[in-house]
Automatic annotation (TrEMBL):
It catalyses: ATP + H2O = ADP + phosphate + H(+). This is Twinkle mtDNA helicase. GO terms for biological process: mitochondrial DNA replication; mitochondrial transcription; protein hexamerization. PROSITE patterns: SF4_HELICASE. InterPro entries: DNA_helicase_DnaB-like_C, P-loop_NTPase, TOPRIM_DnaG/twinkle, Twinkle-like. Residues 641-651 have a biased composition (Basic and acidic residues). Its EC number is 5.6.2.3. It comes from Vombatus ursinus (Common wombat). Residues 384-635 form the SF4 helicase domain. It is a peripheral membrane protein.
Length: 674
């Protein structure tokens, strides 16, 4: 288990999934400690910059102008690959049925040759066509370096793993089958999918073969650990998660298959295939993401059924992935009591074919009746906790007020200059990111290196400058977070920023974007009326982006200049009332002490569209860890108010609403933060 060396706080505890899964990179593998890497200045993944923005129409136009034949697919354009042989000859012999082709992503222009695994961006493709030098840079796929450096580990583990049936001890086989819920999964199915068992790690091992099935590119280990009365599953991938792009089950897919069922776990794919005989594939990182690099392998399917799990999170993820795959060909299995996840359905003896037949088309209609919505409404009513969103691990009071962090919302955050807005929002976002909320930062004021340093300090809960020997350890873990940074600094055009956000949502499945701060998109208008109009336009653009992309946007806005003795109010946000009207949540960092709590600042939830609860709670700053989250000892007291007038910090706190149920619900969230 991965435990923070400093705090002993298991990262797993930060996860809220019913089946908590985490990735540990290479740790936990029997190979003697994490590798040391040379110092790198940029420790964080950033979206490739500049992002080459190209439209599908431009790609088609270019291919036609060059006389390159192509087939228009669901999410990619398919062309002959210049990497497979001389360009002219390859193009002449190419047919739609050719086993290998070059796939160009219609949204990003990114290409992949399935024959050689060469990949690159749209500019690379143009350069290779125009320069005729394509053949010389074959197989420079991203992550191939990582695969190479780990290939020995991969082979060693694979060689040591054995098919479950070959374990010497029947008792051991029985225990393994019970732990992984394999009672109904046959030996033949395990063999067909080439699943092995590593005794030393008590883990199932799922191989990642190259598309032709010739070489082993990586592995996933699944370990079952008893936890109370339940079992907790821990995943480890080689190479590390960001480079692990295994569509598990691909070698079993026939070129003529036109239907596939996508699952979020390997064992679900096994169960589904065994019960239905249908082609099945498992996504490499479950519900977290569908990397566009995998789309070419899914182009051949005319129908894709997504059966990703049994809860609302799985349903949300299925809807998002269907957009990427092209909703016209997708159907979704709705989670519910009668529709558990495939492995569970097999164990319970349910009819998996029938469940698949009940899958709903993902195609979006502009006008719907309640009849089409009623199942969705029922889903929300029976999953109230999940509808409330991801709960913070470090801020129980935010959970109590906002209930959680939900997709598609806009949060406006303000506070006096230098009060610690960036520092607070960094911890608030980091908390969510460690729980699987894929995050994109737009930090226009402070550099990404400085921001990353703040976040890493908050992640490690202390100054790393005093314990540099731990740097690699923490940086490795930090690197595994789905955290990305826009590389903009200073004034930016709103269009460019929104385009980059669209790109990031598509490529990295971003669910939370933080913009710090809005003033950097407002240009240099001198007249205050122009500035206000510009701000309204920008707020509108972010609002639309959040709604259209089911992505939460947290927008930092400076307040108007006001008397520094007074608390800020919603009306103190710079500009017209548009920002607070459009926002689902308004948070204000008040540079004042709450008489009733520790710390010199407090946070005010001034608007909460989800359920209306507003209130304040104290923030105590810890200078060494740069955190605001309450310490284990600190008991933050909450004051609930209905309007700004009651926000006088000198008044004793009064409790309105909330009730006992809220109290009980937050008990878990009040566990000591890391
Ligand atoms: N509560 C606090 N007490 C003392 N120092 C703090 C507190 N919060 C943040 N700081 C420190 O104050 C400095 C400024 O913090 P930060 O950049 O987060 O403020 P900000 O409100 O975002 O500033 P700006 O208004 O310029 O955007 C940082 O060095 C930070 O470590």
């Amino acid at each position: 288990m991965w435990i923070s060396p400093q705090s002993g706080y298991p990262l797993r505890a930060l996860l809220t999934l019913r089946w908590p899964i985490m990735w540990m990179g290479c740790r936990g593998l029997p190979r003697g400690g994490p590798p040391r890497r040379p110092y790198r200045k940029e420790v964080l993944p950033t979206p490739e910059t500049p992002v080459v923005l190209v439209t599908a129409a431009e790609i088609r136009q270019y291919l036609r102008a060059r006389g390159i034949p192509f087939q228009d697919g669901y999410s990619c354009l398919r062309t002959p690959s210049p990497f497979l042989g001389p360009w002219g000859a390859e193009a002449e012999n190419w047919t739609e049925g050719s086993p290998h082709s070059l796939f160009i992503d219609k949204t990003t222009g990114h290409f992949l040759c399935t024959g050689t695994l060469a990949e690159g961006n749209w500019e690379d493709f143009q350069a290779s066509v125009e320069g005729g030098a394509a053949g010389s840079w074959v197989s420079e796929g991203k992550g191939s370096e990582t695969v190479d450096s780990h290939s020995n580990d991969v082979l060693r583990i694979w060689d040591r793993a054995v098919p479950l049936t070959e374990l010497p001890d029947q008792e051991e086989i029985h225990v393994a089958r019970t732990m992984f819920n394999l009672a109904k999964v046959s030996d033949a199915t395990l063999k067909l999918f080439n699943v092995r068992y590593l005794r030393a790690a008590r883990s199932l091992v799922f191989p990642w073969f190259s598309p032709g099935g010739l070489s082993l590119r990586g592995l996933k280990l699944l370990k079952a650990e008893g936890q109370g009365e339940g079992v907790c599953y821990v995943e480890t991938t080689l190479p590390r998660p960001s480079a692990y792009h295994n569509l598990f089950g691909l070698p079993l897919i026939n070129l003529r298959d036109v239907e596939v069922v996508l699952t979020s776990r390997e064992l679900d794919s096994l169960a589904l295939h065994q019960a239905t005989g249908l082609p099945t594939l498992a996504l490499p990182r479950g519900l977290t993401c569908l990397p566009p690099t995998l789309l070419p392998y899914l182009e051949q399917f005319r129908r894709i059924v997504l059966w990703l799990g049994d809860d609302l999170r799985a349903w949300e993820a299925a809807k998002l992935f269907a957009r990427k795959l092209n909703p016209k060909r997708c159907s979704l299995v709705r989670p519910g009591d009668q529709h558990p996840r495939p492995l569970e359905a097999l164990t319970q003896g349910l009819n998996l074919q029938r469940i698949l037949r009940s899958a709903l088309p993902a195609g979006h209609k502009s006008i719907v009746s309640f009849r089409q919505l009623r199942e969705e409404v029922l889903g929300e009513l029976s999953n109230v906790e999940q509808v409330a969103g991801v709960r913070w691990g470090r801020f129980p009071d935010l959970n109590r007020l906002l209930k959680g962090h939900r997709k598609g919302e806009l949060t406006v955050f303000t506070g006096p200059t230098g009060s610690g807005k960036t520092t607070f929002i960094s911890e608030y976002a980091l908390d969510l990111c460690t729980q699987g909320v894929n995050t994109l930062w737009g930090s226009f004021e402070i550099s990404n290196v400085r921001l990353a340093r703040i976040m890493l300090t908050q992640f490690a809960m202390g100054r790393l400058e005093e314990r540099l020997e731990e740097y690699d350890e923490w940086a490795d873990r930090f690197e595994d977070l789905a955290l990305y940074f826009m590389t903009f600094h200073g004034q930016q055009n709103i269009r460019t920023v929104v385009d980059t956000m669209h790109h990031a949502v598509y490529v990295y499945d971003i669910c939370h974007v933080i913009i710090d701060n809005l003033q950097f998109m407002m240009g240099h208008e001198q007249l205050s009326s122009d500035r206000i109009a510009a701000q309204d336009y920008i707020v509108g653009a972010f609002r639309k982006f959040a709604t259209d992309n089911s992505c939460h946007v947290t927008l930092v806005i400076h307040p108007r200049k006001e008397d520094s003795d007074k608390e800020l109010q919603t009306a103190s946000i710079f500009g017209s009332a548009k920002a607070s009207q459009e926002a689902d949540n308004v948070l204000i960092l008040q540079d004042k002490k709450l008489v009733t709590g520790p710390g010199k600042r407090y946070l005010q939830v001034a608007k909460n569209r989800f359920d209306g609860d507003v209130g304040v709670f104290p923030l105590e700053f810890n200078k060494s860890s740069l955190t605001f989250s309450p310490s284990a000892k600190g008991k933050a007291r909450l004051k609930k108010v209905k309007d700004d007038n009651e926000l006088d910090p000198k008044k004793p706190p009064s409790r309105k609403g909330g009730g006992a149920s809220g109290k009980q619900k937050d008990k878990a969230a009040q566990t000591p933060p890391p």
